[in-house]
Amino acid sequence: MRKIFFIGIMVVLVSACGTKKRTTYSKKNSGTTTVEKNRTDDTGLYPMPEDNGRFMEFPIASIEDYIDTFSEIAQFEMKAYGIPASITLAQGILESGFGRGELTLKTNNHFGIKCHTGWDGPYALHDDDERGECFRKYNHPMYSFRDHSLFLTTRSRYAFLFDLSKDDYKGWAYGLKKAGYATDRKYPHKLISFIERYKLYEYDTAVLQQGYVVEKKSSSGRFKVHVVKEGDTLYSISRRYFVSVEELKELNALNDNIISVGQELRIQSNKIR
Asked: What is this structure's pTM?
């Protein structure tokens, strides 16, 4: 089975997850394979690939291939944000057509997240519930996985999900439908079917066996201060610190996306322990 490997984080991945071993991280673009450096961010989260402005294509052959490619990313997101890795993988498989759906192929959007108010990043128009709807676009799928975590953790309607046991994938599946993530009444059953057929719950167990406890966000937590520089936008700042635009606006009492050079912005610092 073809694997996409992650350079520079092998030691972290092996010691943290223990389910697969990877040595390099390659990606395909227009039929050629290249290797890029990962940028270690200063938030304490695992390294993310440097966004060089090029759209990276990730050909996936099967559901098993999709799981093999993205399972470790889902586990790290579970550690950082408390979303069961099984749920992240099942949603990715369903929403993206295991990476082969038309929307995903042109946007690297694995979770069907639409633009919504405040999104000023790249986007693509795609027919979904209505014609020509706006969907977020990412140059690399890892940013889609991170945005999925931020989407669920920064919206109040999903807050009750984080009171569930970390291995309660059934509660999460039904809760996502209840909170309005999807309109399909069979959405929970489809997620649960993927999780049980492919034993995705084993990825949750692997994380929980290591004793990781995800701390809930607190307004009294530690903050960073970012001084706005020329060329900065809320979107570019959100990408740098791996927070959502909505969170930046709420934390800094911003009513719109306008910021000015020299302005100081508070940013919540979330760390993996």
From this structure: 0.71
